[in-house]
Structure formats: structure tokens, C-alpha cells
Amino acid sequence: MAVLVFPGAAALEACLRGELVPQEIQRAPARFREGDDGEIVVEVSGIDRKRRAELKKLGVGSARALGRTPDVNEVSCWAEILRPVFVGDEALDSAVALFWLERQEDLVALAGELLRLGCDRQELCALPDELIAQGGPAALVRAVDPPFYTLVRALDRPGGLRAFVPAPAGQEQIFVEAGYRHPLVEHVQRGSAPLLLITAEGHFVPLEELSFQGLYQLIDVAPPRGDARHAPLPPPPRVQVTLTLVPRAREALPTLWVIRERAIESVERLIERLPEAELSKLLFAATSSAGGDSGEPTVLLRVRPGRGSPPVLDLPGEAFAPWLEIDNLYLPSDAILEPPLRRETLRNLLAERSDEVCWLTPLDAEPSAGGNGAGNGAAATAAAGVRPPERARPFQLERAPESAFAPLSHWVQYVVHSSAEALEPWVRSSTFDFEAFESTGLEWSDSPPQEEREPRSTRKRRRRRDDIDDEPSGERASEALPDYEIEDDEIDDEPEPMLEAPPPVVVEEGAEAQLLSQLEARYLELEAPADDPERTRLWAEMGELNARLERERQSRLCFARAVWELDGDAANTVVARWAASMGVEGDDVAASIGDGADAEAGLVVLGVLGPALAQADGALLQRVQLWLDEKDGSLDVRTIWLARVALSRAVGGDRLQLLRARDRIVARLSRGLSLARDVPTFMRFAGSSGGSEGAAHRQLVRRLTAFLDRFRKTRRSVPFNAGADARTDAYGLLLFAYGFARLGEAEHARALREEALGAIDTSDPIHAIAAPAYAVRVDHALEGLPLETKLPDEIEARLNELPKFKRYTIDRLRHASQVLEPQERLQIYTGFLGDADDPRGAEFASLRGLGDAAQLRVAVDEVLAMAEGFADEPQERARLLDGVMDFFPLLAEAEAVPRIERVAAALEGIEAPRRAELLDEALMLAALFGRAALVEALATRLQVLFAELGEAHIEVLGRLLGGVLRSLRRAGLGERAAELLTAAESAVQGDEGPALQARLSLGTALADLGRYDEARAIAGVARKRLADVVGANKGPPLLETLNLARGLAELYACLPLDEALGGLEALSEHLGSVSDIYSSNTHFCVSVLEFVESLVLGYASDQLSLGEVGRRLLDEDEYLVRRRVHRDTRL
Asked: Residue 120: is it exposed, middle or buried by C-beta count within 10 angstroms (0-12/13-18/19+)?
């Protein structure tokens, strides 16, 4: 037994942190005492001489014995030797706290204080006498969001009250007394005890399994006596309010000037004295609106969007500034609009058309009751008692088309054009006619005539190639360039798809981000196809700017899109710009690939990688192959495909590896492009809040947080098993964690996941499947994987081992959860009543888990042949065809497509609803493999079938509609989707039950296509029906409530952001009315989780984060990927 003497607590802490004392010794019990000079003497066993010698060199002494003085203390581990450090109230901001009470009779008083201060999420626990006798607390109170006042009061320990907070944060197993910080808390081991408290004195108090009871389980709330019902009065008459302009100072600088008097002269004086840099910021438009004297036009000057701070101009005109961040609405710079209206309302009222610039011009006359424009309704307003503000002025709304504006630098061209008649005599007087003078060519010649030369129209004016490499840059570039000639017949009216790399744009330091934002805005505003050359140019420029800002991943995504539609020299030009932006030469690429370098820097793929590998040896090619295999799952689909194509060409055309790569990419595209992995950041929030990704993201996160707060505070009745309420809360937190992860709030998502998993006992076999499955979905969302990503095989294996009744319980949750099972249509009752190992039937049990492609193909063909043999049994044939199509995505395209055609040919004779479901699945698979002709044929059959289904099967029609439209758009058949939607509208009618549910699916598709007014009308009907069923005295029809909530949430997610958020918030108010009495209440309330999931998926939907513009661009983006992948494979 050795005795070590540490100079002090700091020395001991350093030795423990540096593991100079081995971990196994640190975790063992020990005896120690404190010396008079502050040294710490510790008795230790198991430490060897070599380690003691190292400690001695660092100043750690030794002693013969510890001694048996009264100062000797025993601790459970070495960390307990160190005492916590007082930090005051700086660490009291905690989401959870444990309150330690010395007397159980103080429990009710503390609970009342917390409740009075707004903390109703409490759990109380009285501890046994034997634990109290050992120095433990008499009672504990666990509080969520504890009030700061009570935490501060506990610092003084009034009446023995103490507070403990989690340390480190993010877990709830180790708590340190509030106001203190233990120096080694991150190294503390709690052992077998589920809870460990560390007091201010440094004592470790382990607590065994405790039984906490919620506050509302201990109290009964009596309803008030009496029931007074109020009858609604008729709505008051609508009040007509007049919009007026009120003089008021504003911070916004003028960005629009309207010059009515002597406009041309004023603008010319401005151009003479304005610096060129300021001149480039302005646009002008000359209009013919009345208002100026002497018939002169009115000239509008406007600051170009995204050109830095607006210039300060002294002009004899009216100055206007933007209002409420509406891009095309301007108010006088010294006035505001009264009464204040919301931005969307004002946009729809005054500036609905985005292709017009609108401004409000004050009128000198008072508004009249019978006039037009802003003056209308003044008399009614006064009569209703609504007086306009003092000094309020009416206004006139004026508009000018956006297309009328041109850069102010083009002003000279405008003046020349408008004064053409006055200039014509001067032009004629300055013209010399050479046709009257002819020459023989010998008059002034001193030598014989030269051989006849080619006409000038074909003469070459070539640039000397030798000078290209030495081309100077900067201000004197024009002086140093030599004369060059080109042939006139080489001049092309149409620009090349991609130009040579321009010289770097010189911007001020820190302005790259602003310039990038301008390019992103231009891209989103561009009305052109996804493969338009202008978009290609913008992608290349955005790639260079992202590289300068060291956003390597964003740069790679942009350049991959820039080169995607190009070939030959045009592609090589873009690739050269890509390589230059990363500072990589062609020879450097081959050396960087495969050496374990960063994925971004190592993969300067495309035309650079291709030429570099063309002369590479076999060893390098193999390294590249292995490197691409390793990075395949982490790269975006464009980059990985271009890399595979380049590698295939380098080895002489390896078609087999290209086909395998194609199959992997098509499988990834089966659920669409991944927003996190495949889409540039600025496109994720395109169209929301005017294209501002930050504003949209903050609103979504804020509203989802508000729904989380409502969920935590809402008390629900769980009639079957009240103990499942806490577990329902925990699973609800996992759903919120998934939502925050989808929105990119990683820390919040992880904290909620850990909080939820800590509250679920996974020793129960059902919880051992459900909790990890939800946690995996959260991890998928954090990694940017699509919702349909397969769950791990271990969860599937545990699922298959469950007894029948427990399997039924977990299957009910899976059936209700789109997060757990986004694709598979579970037949929970069939699986419960049947004896098959696979819910689809015994024929499919052998197919599950087959890893060999050849074996899987043979097994699929056997099931197909079996299905085709049931010619006289359509139900059995439909079951087999439905089940076998689940395995088609696992096959290669060349093998899967003929089998899809076999399925489509085997559907005759199956009843219409079932046939529609099978056609829907076949259509989805055909779109997955990019077979547009097959998709078109299947869609035609579905369109005919929709008319055949009619009202009798309206539920099936509504369920299939959304998926069919998505498949058509993925295949690049957007117009065909619109036709199918029109055909379905006539068949979908009704205001309740399955008919209304089908109309909700129709409304979602309409909103997805931008037909918002029709979608809003359907949402209004559904909202009214939901309010009726929830407010019925007999209690809400549960299934209809959940179906309406899910359908409304999906529809709202396709509407503009402000409308969507308002609708989802209104839906959340029904949370308290949701409950059920299913047998699954032994573990969780499925209905509550289904309702919460509907709203969480609404807030975290791709539609809201993308916006209308983003959704359209993403669909076009996916189509371009599929088109090129299939085109390259065929070539």
C-alpha cells in the first residue's frame, strides 16, 4: 500500500486529468486526509514503482503511512476528493432541477411555490427512512423549467432546501448542487446507481431507483359549479377603413425618385456630377404618365437591388423608400401608411403583381366620399367613428412595368433615340458619299499591282495565340494587348453555352458574401428552364464565390451543376475554373486523389480528373476506385456520377462499374434528392419570405418550439393506463427531436433525443424496438438522409422475434407513424390473425434478407410466376403482385423494368380499387428508373381508372392522388400531372368523411402546383368539419379527427409560409382533445403520437423550407440528374 502526497488540490486535479493516476485506480475507493499546509495525502494500492517515479519527478511526494487520525476520510472514487468550486448564480439557467428537502412536510409548500411561479411540470418523491439515516434527502422534487427565484433562494439553503442541476448539461444522471461546479464532473462515474448527487461539500450521494409521481397524479381538480352558456351575437357591420399617408420620420433611405418637372435636364445634370461607381447603382425608366409640364416624360430613378448602400441624391423630385420589405412597393421617405396592415395583406392590396413597381403619391386634396383610389370610403369611415390620424393625406397608387427600367448608363442611348428627328439633318450633313468616286487602283501606285487579295469579308483578323498566356490584367490591360484579327464569318450571333473564365471580380474585403447573395437572388428570379445556359453561367460564378468564402461543399455543388449539361471544350472551361478556384493544377489532382485527403479538396473531379487519370498507372486508378467507393455515400449524386464517368473513361470504358454506379444512384433517387446532401443551401428556403432562407428558418424553428411548449404543458387523459402518459411524452419528444433535426437544429434535436431516451425503459421488448427506431430516425435527419431511409437490420430482427400480441402493439404504432414506416402499407390485423412470418405472406419470408442479387432475381421470378398462375383468383394475384414489387428497387434497372411491365400486364380482372393501388406502385417504380414512356402509359391507365372509381371508392382515390402526381413530376411529366389532377377534380366531391379526406389530398396537390385559391377553399371546409367533430357533445370521432389533422397539416405545408404557420398553430390547439382506449395504451397513446407527428412533419416539411420556387427547382433538378445518368449509361 503506497501513500502519495500531492502539493494541493490543483496538483491532484492535473494528475487526474492527465491520467498520471491510471483510470482504474481513479475509479476505485480511496482514503485520504488533508494536511495543515493544504497538501492532500492519499492512500493508494495497485500503483507500480515506475508510475510512482514519474509522479515524484512532477513533485508528488510519498509518506510511510496515512495514519489513523480523525481527519482521514473515505471516498468512493478519487474525484470525490476534490471539492466543488462556488460559481454563484452564473450556472443556474437549467432546463431541469432537483430540489433536496430535509423534511418531508416541506414537500407540499415547495410544490405550491413552484406552481405559483408558473412551474407545473413537477414530479415528487418521498425517500425511505434508511436513506435519510445515511445523510440523504427526505424528499426530492424534479422540476422542468424551474423558476430562477427558487434556484437562487436554494443557494442559501433555507430550511435545508438545496437545488441540484445536471452537470454536464444534456444528461439527467449526475447532478451538482446549484451554484457550484465540480472540476472533474465530466470524469465522474455514477456506478450502478441511476442517480448521483454531488453536494457543495463534495460528498457523492448515490440514489437507487426512485419512484417519482407527477403533480397532477396527486391532485384532483374539481370543475367549477354551474354552466353558463353564451349565445353568439350577430357579427357587427363591416367598417370601411381608408388607407392614408401620415408624415413620420423613417430610417429607410430613399431608393426611388420620381421626377416630373424638367426631368431630362435634371437627370443629365445628375449624370455629369455622379461618380461612375454610384451611376452603376441606378436604373431609370421614362414613362408617359401625366403630371409634368410642357409634355415632358416623367423619369423614374431606382436603386438596383443588391448594389450596396443607396446613393444620396439631391433631385428636384419626390423621394420614395421601400415599405415593410415589399420589394416593389414604395412610400414617401418621410411618411408611413395608416392604419398598419400585415405585409401579405398589403402586398395583395397594392402590389400584387411582381412585374410592376408601385409607389404611393400623396394628394393635396382631402379624400372625397365618391372619389376613386385611396379616397373611397372616407365618409363611411368617419360615420363609423374611425377618424384618420391628424395630418393624414390621401394618396394615388401609381405603377410602372419592371421591364421599363434600364441601367442609367444607357441614358445616352435613350436621349439619342427620343431625339432622332432633330438629329437626322445633322447626320445627313456629316455623311460623305464615296460611291461617286471610283479608283482603278493605279493612280497613286509606284509599282505593279499586287496579286488580288480575298475580300475583306473573308479576311482573317486573328488574335496571336502566343500572347494569350501573357495577357495582362488590371488597368493597363487595354494598352498592352496587341492588335488582333478575326474572320467576319467566325462571328456567331448566338453566344456559346459557356464563356472563357472572366478575370476575377474585384470586390471590397468582406463583400463576397453580398455578391454571392445577389447571384443567388438572380438565379431564383430567372424565368428560364433548369438547363438554360444563363443558369449554367450563374452556377459557375456562385461556385467561385463559395470557394473564396471557403465554403468548399457549396462550391462543389455549384460547379457540379455548372458542368452537368456541358460537353467538350465548354465543360473543360468550367472545370478549369473549378480547379483554379481550389488552387489545384491538373498534375496535382492525381496525387491528391486517394491519399486520404479531405473529400472536398481530394475530389476536383470532372474534366480535370479525367485528363489527369488518362495517363495514370493501374495503381493510381485502383486507389481512386477505392476512394470513390469509400466516399460514395457522403457525396452528392452529381459529383459521384461525374467521378464515376471520368474513371470509366480513364480505364477505357468500364461499362459494368458504370451500370453499378447508375443503379446505386437511381436507388438514392427513389426518395428524391437529399436536401442536406444534394441541394445548395440557398435553394432549401427559396420562395419563403421573399427568398430569405434565414427568415423562413427562424420562423419555422420558433413555431415548432412553441408547439413543443404546448405539448409539454398540455395535460391529456389516458383512460386505459395512466402510467403510459410519461412514455407518450417521451416518444413525443423524439418526434420533436426529428423535426428539429430536419430543420438543422442539431443541438436541440440531440438534447431532446437524450431526454426522451432517458425516460423510456428499454428493458421492455416493445420499447426496445420503438425507442431505438425513433432515435435512428433522428440520426437520419441529422445526417440529411431522406425519411424513407431503411432502418437497421437489428431492429427488423428484434421485430420478427416478438410474440404475436406484442408485435400487434408495435405494429399499431408503425401503422400510424409516417416517420417509422414512410412507405410500407402495414396490414396490422392480417398480420395479427395470420400465421405467416411475413405480413405480406409466407411466400415472401425467404426473400427478406437475401443479399445475393442472382438469388433475389430468381426468387422474385418465382413469385411473379406464381402470381400469373392465379388467373381465376384476382385477390390472391393482387396480394402476390403487391408484395413482390417491394423488392424491385433492389434489382438493377435492366432487370427491374421488364418485371414492372409484367406486373402491369397481369392486372386485368383485379377489382378497380386494388388495381389502382398496384398501378400507383408500378408508376412510382417506373419513375424511379427514369422510364418516361412507361410512366406515361401507366398514368393513362390510372386516369381512366380514376373516372371508373367515382364516389364509391373516393377514399382510395384520395389516398393515391398525391403519390401519383409526385411520381409524374419526378419523371419530368409536370404537364401530364396537371392533366391527371383536372381529371380527378370532377370525381372528388363531398364535405365529410372519406370524401373530405380525398378532397384534402386533392387540395394538397393543387397547392403543390401553385393553385392556392382552390386549395384554401378545401382547407376552409376541412377546418370547419374538424371544429364540428371536436366540439360535438358526444365526443370527437377519433379516426376522423386524426385523418383531418394529418390531411390539413400536409395541405398547409404546401401553402405560402405565413398561411402555413397560422394553420398549423390553429391545429395544435386540438391537442388536448386527442386520446384513445386502444390496447396499445399499455405502452403509449398512439393517437396522441399520430397527431403530434402530423404537425411536426408539417413544420419540418421540405415544402415549407423550400417554398414554391424551391420545390419547382428541386423537381427540375432531379429530372436533369435522371436524364444525364440514363443518357451516359446508354452512350
From this structure: middle
